[in-house]
Amino acid sequence: MSYRYIALVDVNRRWNLANLTEIEAALQMDNMRERFTSGSIRLFLAAETPFQPLPGGGFAIGHLFSRTFAPFDAMARLSTFSSNKRLREHVTENCWGEYVLVQPDERDGTGITLTRDPSGGVPCIYSLRNGSGFITSGISLATRLDLYRKRIDWDVLIHCLTYPNLKTRRTAFADICELLPGSSLAIDPRNLTTHPNWSPWKFVARGHRHTNLVDAAADIRASVASVVHAWADVDESILMELSGGIDSSIVAACLKNAGPRVTCYNLATPVPGADERQYARQMAACLGVDLQTEQLDLDIACGDVAPFPDAVSPRMGILQYAVSHAMEAAALRHGASSTYTGSGGDTVFGLLTNAVPAADAIRERGVIAGLSSIRDLSVLHQCTMWKAARLTARKMIRAPKAACVPDCTFMNPSLFIAPAEAHPWFDAPKGMLPGDWERIVDLASNQLFRDIVYRGENCWIRMPLLSQPVVEACLRVPSWMSISGGHNRVAARAAFADVLPPDILNRRSKGSFVGYLGAVFKRNKNQIRETLLSGGLNDQHLLDADALTRFFEAELPPRDKSFTRVLSLFTAENWVRHQAC
């Protein structure tokens, strides 16, 4: 299940009334009703999509919660603000949730401002020209209404394939853009202007950072628990995806004694490497329920499978498709109204796998304190102090790593590879710490989770660890504090030390699905080869056909993971084949 809406926009107020009547009739057939009208916008919502009116003639699509986690009355709390701009600032600073705000211009009503929450929980794509067009939660709505005919933007598709971990405002469909999480879009007859209204850099600045582990852990505990409880109050029954790792276990721990019925589910694979059932079973026992398990299919993801219908870029990979298919079926089988995951926990909780936390400690706290972090680093990575010190010194000397490094593997070498598009969160302040830079770059990549996780039309997807209060609490934790004592994600572990099973709290290993993907590749190698070399990507001269041919004809060396890149190209080809161009 998802938020479903479409807004018809004409800031010049030159409505085609005959066409509008046809659209209204089609939307009514789709169980969507007009909920908001001004001179320049008409907003239609599905019956299951929550909404709230705002002062000043505005509208909030989705779920909007108070930062105090008390019951929230938008009208009562927000009616005192004299301008829409101040109201938006107040919502960003004092509220959270999954929402898009729609606000008409308060001067003459011709302009419109949209604001998307920092977690990106409510989708927001748009096609606007000269102040008219549409804004919607899903491209399929626009195509069904004949408001848009799909056309692939091959230049953007090249960018997606070259920078697979970067989300930008452009989509792989021509004339379709996305409002990025934490941003606002101002529409008037002459211009479209986007600007960030939330920045992660505020929370890593001096004066906002935690100075001790006790306070950091308490802040994380309060934010995660309160967010999970707020969502649990909304939902009727929950399917908890338990991977066995610390992130999903923390979310599950917060569901103990929750009102909704909770079913815990774990996915294993028919090949070694990703069997986490021994850990997931312990966490399920803490909730007083049995663990339901299922084995992922090796064949389901390599056929001619339809991608997520509202995917505006080829993001969902083979593993995500297999998991989504299994969890969607499980939710239907167990009658779950919502699925909860620990998505994004590694980044949010500050998992850094290099020497940058120790480098941050020296820069922020001095050499003496930095030596303690170097010792923590050596324990964490089980190396000597000398090696940890050497790696830390190298980190301090070198420039911060690039936000995005192009991956041109198996791409046509004659292609022009444009520089990575800027993301608003990459606008770093002077004097930033390298660890904060790496965390925030990774946090921007987390925005892709909304694109790759799909659980069908009958189940809400909840990602509590991506919510604004949790992200802000974790950003306040310095990178060096997250490896204190020689463990990773230490503040998050300390926050939930009393409710996690010891085996999960103290584990250092992590399951991997690489073996599963390798088995999928071997079983479907011939089909993957045929699909890639005869498909649209190759027809558009995007691929290095010779390099791919050599790769398929050679024996895959042990531990070689280049097949994962081939699988990514295969899923992109599958997306291309399902677009009616």
TrEMBL record:
Q: Which InterPro entries does the record associate with it? A: Asn_synth_AEB, Asn_synthase, ASN_synthetase/amidase, Ntn_hydrolases_N, Rossmann-like_a/b/a_fold
Q: What class of enzyme is it?
A: ligase
From what superkingdom does this record's organism come? Bacteria
Asparagine synthetase domain residues are: 226-576
Q: Cite the annotated pathway.
A: Amino-acid biosynthesis; L-asparagine biosynthesis; L-asparagine from L-aspartate (L-Gln route): step 1/1
Q: Which CDD domains match?
A: Asn_synthase_B_C
**Reaction(s) this enzyme catalyzes, per UniProt:** L-aspartate + L-glutamine + ATP + H2O = L-asparagine + L-glutamate + AMP + diphosphate + H(+)
EC number(s): the record gives: 6.3.5.4
Q: Name one Pfam family in it.
A: Asn_synthase
Family, according to the entry, reads as follows:
Belongs to the asparagine synthetase family.
Q: PANTHER family given for it?
A: ASPARAGINE SYNTHETASE, ASPARAGINE SYNTHETASE (GLUTAMINE-HYDROLYZING)
Q: What is this protein called?
A: asparagine synthase (glutamine-hydrolyzing)
Organism the protein comes from: Rhodanobacter geophilus
